[in-house]
Amino acid sequence: MQSYTVQPAKSVRGEIRVPGDKSISHRSIMFGSIANGVTKVSGFLRGEDALATLEAFRAMGVQIDDDGETVTIVGKGLHGLEEPTDVLDCGNSGTSMRLLTGLLAGQSFFSVLSGDKYLRARPMKRVVGPLSKMGAHIGGRAGGEKAPLAIQGSKLKGIEYDSPVSSAQVKSAIMLAGLYAEGETVVREPHLSRDHSERMLRAFGAHVETFPGGVKVRGGAELTGRDIVVPGDISSAAFFMVAGSIVPGAELVIKGVGINPTRTGIIDILMGMGADLELLHERDETGEPVADIRVRYAPLKAMAISGEVVPRAIDEFPAICVAAALAEGTTVVSGAEELRVKETDRITAMADNLRRAGVTVVETPDGMEITGVSALKACAADSFGDHRIAMSMMVAGLVAQGETTISDVDCIATSFPGFRELLEGVVQR
Ligand SMILES: O=C(O)C1=C[C@@H](OP(=O)(O)O)[C@@H](O)[C@H](O)C1
Ligand SMILES: C=C(OP(=O)(O)O)C(=O)O
């Protein structure tokens, strides 16, 4: 396991592009594979998570070619997937496992999903429960709570489901099962989570209707392959938005970032803290809004973060914690208990790391209170095997008084291959 040492930065300046959106990349492979005809994807994220999804569909007989520019998927139609001869390895990817569980529940074959030790520790009942109500046959460790999951495909029927969590993975798993179910499937959620499945499935020709509080899918519609342009991942851009906000004199432009309103919580939160962010050249690319984001250094102040913005910024909290650590006052995060069931418990992981850097952090069951400091202490930080913790502490290291070493940074390849090089490329020392 490789560790990495970050030196403090004098400034960060430049114009960059971040890799493709992870959520959209997963979905492009999944929906393209069960569509009729060819789907061509440009901007596909070649991170380990999205590649796990790609390999899973190859293992189910789908021809997927990558020439380094475009990923081309020769769709097999709604009922054309083949029974995989081995366990489908989802690696570290919750999105792969949960969405695949929904999709596989309605097939006419048997399949098994597993993943790395982090994924095997994450809760799966949140999808297994509602899918079972639709008639799915899914077994797993701990009474179906933990992977490996064994799925005997079966006939499904539509349900109405009120999800207790605002989770796009839960919503999308049920929607995917709904494509195969008899009748209509309705999912409601407390706050709107990312809506890429809704947008993309509709564009592929599925019967998907959204309404305030939820989504309705009608089963049986054939999908048609199409071209997809994957925008830059706002969750990856977030590390640079925070770096640009906390390093004095910084100015960065991040080109071609997806700004779907269900993902822009990071922008709302940072601007609420006083960050200097500007959206330039707003445009639409195959059904998703895109912009260039300019960020300049500005002193930050603490704020309260809760409610509907939480699912709109769910993966950005480790980076937001770093911004809060440098903000004046105490930032209070609540309603964010979902952070405890990610690749690691991200509340405990960030509290631990920020304390090592000299910050006062109080953990609460559903969030944390972070009291900002004017400079971080040099420290040895731990990624806990979580890509977003690793990248957040590398950004924190830019404003520390001395060297910050982060353990086990290999996990960054999960979502952001090339992160270190991109960051070092904009740092001035
Ligand atoms: O649907 C998706 O693509 C994702 C949904 C989110 O998970 P939850 O649905 O568990 O909140 C997010 O954390 C993950 O990185 C990607
Ligand atoms: C939580 C994440 O992804 P997943 O749930 O797909 O593992 C993430 O990328 O931060």
State the gist of this model.
This protein is an alpha/beta fold and 429 residues long. It is built from 13 helices and 29 strands. Strands 19-20-18-2-29 form a five-stranded mixed sheet.
Task: Label this structure with key terms.
single chain; 429 residues; alpha/beta; UDP-n-acetylglucosamine1-carboxyvinyl-transferase, Chain; 2 domains; 5-stranded mixed beta sheet; 29 strands; 30% strand; binds shikimate-3-phosphate; binds phosphoenolpyruvate
Structure description:
With 429 residues, this protein is an alpha/beta fold. The protein folds into two domains: 215 residues, UDP-n-acetylglucosamine1-carboxyvinyl-transferase, Chain; 208 residues, Enolpyruvate transferase domain (UDP-n-acetylglucosamine1-carboxyvinyl-transferase, Chain, Alpha-beta prism). It has 13 helices and 29 strands. The strands form eight sheets. The chain has a five-stranded mixed beta sheet. The mean pLDDT is 98. The structure holds shikimate-3-phosphate (S3P) and phosphoenolpyruvate (PEP). The site of phosphoenolpyruvate has 10 residues, from helix 3.
Instruction: Please count the beta strands (DSSP E, at least 2 residues each).
Output: 29
Judging by the overall fold, what is the CATH architecture of the largest domain? Alpha-beta prism
Look at the helices and sheets and give the structural class: alpha/beta
| Low-confidence spans | none
Mean pLDDT across residues: 98
Total number of helices: 13
Which of globular, elongated, flat, extended, rod-shaped describes the shape? globular
Bound molecules: shikimate-3-phosphate, phosphoenolpyruvate
Ends distance: 27 Å
Radius of gyration: 21 Å
CATH topology of the largest domain: UDP-n-acetylglucosamine1-carboxyvinyl-transferase, Chain
The top-level CATH class of the largest domain is Alpha Beta
Strand order across the largest sheet: 19-20-18-2-29
Helix content: 25-40%
